Amino acid sequence: MNGAHALLRTLVANGVDTCFTNPGTSEMHFVAALDDVPEMRAVLTLFEGVATGAADGYGRMAGRPAATLLHLGPGLGNGLANLHNARRARTPIVNIIGDHAVAHQPLDAPLQSDIESVARNVSQWIRSSNAPADVARDALDAIAAARAGGVATLILPADASWSEGAQTVPAGSIAVRTAPVPAEALDLAAKALQSGEPAALLLGGVLDEATLVAAARVAAATGAKVLCETFPARLERGAGLPAVERLGYLAEFAVAQMDGLRHLVLVGARAPVSFFAYPGKPSELVPDGCDVIDVGPGRIAALAKSVHADAEPARASAARPDRPTGALTAQSLAAAIGALLPEGAIVSDEANTAGLFVAGATAGAPPHDWLTLTGGAIGQGMPVATGAAVACPDRKVLSLEADGSAMYTLQSLWTQAREGLDVTTIIFNNRSYAILNLELSRVGARTDGHAAELFDLSRPPLDFVALARGMGVDAERAETADDVVRALERCLAEPGPHLIDAILPPGL
Amino acid sequence: MNGAHALLRTLVANGVDTCFTNPGTSEMHFVAALDDVPEMRAVLTLFEGVATGAADGYGRMAGRPAATLLHLGPGLGNGLANLHNARRARTPIVNIIGDHAVAHQPLDAPLQSDIESVARNVSQWIRSSNAPADVARDALDAIAAARAGGVATLILPADASWSEGAQTVPAGSIAVRTAPVPAEALDLAAKALQSGEPAALLLGGVLDEATLVAAARVAAATGAKVLCETFPARLERGAGLPAVERLGYLAEFAVAQMDGLRHLVLVGARAPVSFFAYPGKPSELVPDGCDVIDVGPGRIAALAKSVHADAEPARASAARPDRPTGALTAQSLAAAIGALLPEGAIVSDEANTAGLFVAGATAGAPPHDWLTLTGGAIGQGMPVATGAAVACPDRKVLSLEADGSAMYTLQSLWTQAREGLDVTTIIFNNRSYAILNLELSRVGARTDGHAAELFDLSRPPLDFVALARGMGVDAERAETADDVVRALERCLAEPGPHLIDAILPPGL
């Protein structure tokens, strides 16, 4: 058995049965081996940033890793921004990078580069599998490392892939290391929450119903506030689920949300800092005099138990906005989504500035999942929607995309068409990198000049209907709230990928 | 003066007056400072891979560096593949990456990453400019390093940009280090070429008329053969210029070209190795018994002098194919380009497999420049064409693009439209990653399976006319040779960007 076969068989035997890829010559034996391992679904993307973002979306929804298959250092580079986002989401991914044959590497052929030093940035585990006899064991270690919560990068030289001498290892031999429960931190947290002083939980990562219910019970039992990260990897929300307040993106909002706190208990989140530094403003957002206690991810049930939190938590009521009519604005677009969001939908949210009102408008919609831009590197939403749709073929996926961000990884649409994925993309088209108009004044730079021309996407305007059709995706343009309602109803009723180019007031 | 102003003034005072960018919050002060330094032309791109590739194309044509301005580690990641290509081309680029403020970096904010370790891969020089007082001197050093031939990466923390205390340094204070002429290697090379034994020159880098004439004179004086790298950064060619034989991409062709050589003299090129390793085949292509003498880049005139090469060299005759008619094939498409290529055109060639016949069909066309895929990382051709058009506004640019490669950095079209660049793109649309069909058998993998489905771009077909129009670029589809001739004549006659979607037989 050659290394490529051993790798594929090890992956599928251990629950990794989807691979997002754009392969090249050094990956040909992996590609050829797919014929003998039909359990592996290989999904072709037109750009590696789509592959890595799709693996992120898949991992967030499936709760287990997908693989990528990237071509050498440049393929990794193209996928790097979305691996950065995945690292921030702690999404399990087995990130496979083909390399030159071991003997070829010192020759500095044109595509040679230092893959490891680039991959280290985004990987919590990294290894080159240089001999076919090692491939299966290395793959198992990679899967275990990914399952522990993060990107595990396995570099596969072409000759390790094509050479005989590999074998599989028994399934079920994976030991996922989980850190021990930090008893002392749990005690400290429980005491802080029960102290009667102002306290809050800050949740991060995948926030499913069980986590939210446990957190809400802690709140009911102790009076603590429940917050979650600005950009959680996944948030279950909607009618019947406990609502959780997301920390604001703008530092001044986050500061207001934490004002007066004496205790902040982190559960899978990090102590909040501002996204960017601003002249003369603090970057650390935890209020003075507030202690921070980190109990680690996955500890909310233990925490609920230690504070005897067994009361029934408050849950969000069902409530939808009316279908909007009239002008298309950020508010009416949000209302249309709130009015129509189907039960069980998965929302990939990269609507950015123009999407400000969507969270509020959907808070009482039927239960759904919300996926966010975890690492701040734009171009993540459409790939994440693609991967989520592969992971959950029976659910509707709604991809909310800012126009500027959409143009980073628009090739996602082609993969959605090729795979027949049930994704409806709404472009929040304000012909602007609107967030930068805001940031220009926030950093104290002069705003009376021509700088904003570099944030202007109106010359020429982007026609997303043409762009989507060019990649085989059904698309229409919406210029009024009525247009959006009608288009969204149609798209949600017809399986397969669609795009709505929602024309908002400029520069919003 | 703040650091951003000092940086901009230092750049423009030293001949760096074009910046390809997609900025973010950490670059806002640089953007704001552009108002006070109108000599700097800032060119907005929709994706950093376009910015870095455009800087490459600009540098190859202008012979001096452009700047980039990228947003943190993810922006660098998005631009990494084309910086890899630029490194292989030894193109001068001042690669500026905005970073978080120095005090913000240890807080591990969402966009924090290790920029230096990623940049090291593609940079021959790298420095963080952490204090405003250092920015101008660091910028000068970066320009000097870039001019010596390569990517110089300057990391600019936001607070170095916004803080006062910077000053400019006098213009003209740049010392570009060039290596001393290696007298011994030159002597060895001259003796080898004059030995009467089979010998060849292998040229690399920017091959302008002076270089080619000197090399052809050496050939005439010594009987040596003149070869150039498979992918030179820039090659002047056409009627009236000395022709030079490019080393074949396929190793077996390159081996045949060097068969029997006893001496190989490298002038700005590296000893040839195969692009990829293949099972059981050698990666090093220099024949056994052939010595390799490296005289370094820029040494061809010295070499010509030392072998007393003053004969008039052979030059290519003027010859064009007839305008083709009938079916559109790789041959007839090449003939159309050969028949119509205007004098002084710049050709950015990423046509890959389907472009096989274009070099032959244009060998006797009026003089023109040829830019190639220097590092093998696809997605380079359209950005390079964009940057070349910015550098040379009075010349026609022809961008020859394979369909698969085009989809990597298609956002280039929008920048071409925004800037009104005179670029005509021809998509060699064979609905396939055709090179991989070839490579699958060359690596000895099974070819009787379904692997080729992963190289198939026909489901759904890409409509490049719709895609181009979606970004504001005039476009038409060509299905016959007559269509291509008519379309290309029209596009070359009308200034501004155009695209021709040339439909070739599938999988060619």
Keywords:
homodimer, Rossmann fold, 508 residues, 18% strand, 19 helices, eight-stranded mixed sheet, alpha/beta, globular, 19 strands, six-stranded parallel sheet, 3 domains
Explained architecture:
The structure is a homodimer of 508-residue chains. In chain A, helix 3 (48-62) runs parallel beside helix 4 and helix 14 runs parallel beside helix 16. The longest helix of chain A has 18 residues, at 72-89. Chain A is 36% helix and 18% strand. With 508 residues, chain A is an alpha/beta fold. In chain A, helix 6 (132-147) links the parallel strand 5 (125-128) and strand 6. The first copy, chain A, has helices at 3-13, 28-33, 48-62, 72-89, 115-120, 132-147, 158-162, 183-193, 209-222, 251-257, 300-306, 330-340, 358-361, 381-391, 403-406, 412-419, 434-442, 464-470, 481-493, and strands at 18-21, 41-44, 66-71, 93-99, 125-128, 151-157, 199-203, 206-207, 225-228, 234-237, 245-246, 263-267, 291-294, 346-350, 368-371, 397-402, 423-429, 474-478, 498-503. At the A-B interface, helix 2, helix 4, helix 5, helix 7 and helix 16 of A face helix 2, helix 4, helix 5, helix 7 and helix 16 of B.
SSE blueprint:
Two copies of one chain form a homodimer.
Chain A (H helix, E strand, L loop, with lengths): L2 H11 L4 E4 L6 H6 L7 E4 L3 H15 L3 E6 H18 L3 E7 L15 H6 L4 E4 L3 H16 L3 E7 H5 L20 H11 L5 E5 L2 E2 L1 H14 L2 E4 L5 E4 L7 E2 L4 H7 L5 E5 L23 E4 L5 H7 L23 H11 L5 E5 L7 H4 L6 E4 L9 H11 L5 E6 H4 L5 H8 L3 E7 L4 H9 L21 H7 L3 E5 L2 H13 L4 E6 L5
Parallel strand pairs in A: 1-2, 1-3, 3-4, 4-6, 5-6, 7-9, 7-12, 8-10, 9-11, 12-13, 14-15, 14-16, 16-17, 17-19, 18-19
Antiparallel strand pairs in A: 10-15
Helix pairs in contact in A: 1-6, 3-4, 3-14, 9-11, 12-19, 14-16
